[in-house]
Amino acid sequence: MMPRIGKIENGRVHINGAPVTDSFFLHPRGFELLEKSQKIAKKDFERALLHEPEIAVFGVGFHGKIKIDQSVLDGAKKQKIDVHVLPSEAAIKKFQEFARAGKKVVAHIHIGE
After folding, report:
1. What is the pLDDT of residues 48-62, one digit of tens each?
2. Does domain 5-109 have CATH number 3.40.630.30?
3. N or C: which end of the chain has fewer CB within 10 A?
């Protein structure tokens, strides 16, 4: 079931009625909490590939300070995956837009920064 996103604020997002204060991975059937990190790395992209996405959305923090390894962008291009890199609040909304349109989308969202 697609996760229900509630209130979005710096440092906290309500998912399925509960506050989430750690970074997370969204997919149309749910979400997973992630380890804190200052970058989106190849291992993060490999998690996304398990869901066979056509679109990947990366939330780079509420102030856009998180970095994305070039290997992630190169891998997405090679797999012909449409990539959107946005501040986290906009990334969550973009994920919802694509998911509601029936697209195979995943999102890696960083909280804070």
Report:
1. 999 999 999 999 998
2. no
3. N
pLDDT tens track for 28-43: 889 999 987 888 999 9
Please name the residue that has the structure tokens 């992209």. 45
Taking the model in full, what pTM does it have?
0.92
3-class DSSP state of 22: coil
**In angstroms, rounded to a whole number, what is the distance separating the alpha carbons of residues 1 and 68?**
28
Each domain of the chain, given as residue ranges in start order, spans: 5-109
Q: What 8-state DSSP symbol labels residue 48?
A: H
Q: How many CA atoms lie within 13 A of 98 on its CB side?
A: 22
Bridge-based pairing state of the strands 105-109 and 24-27: antiparallel
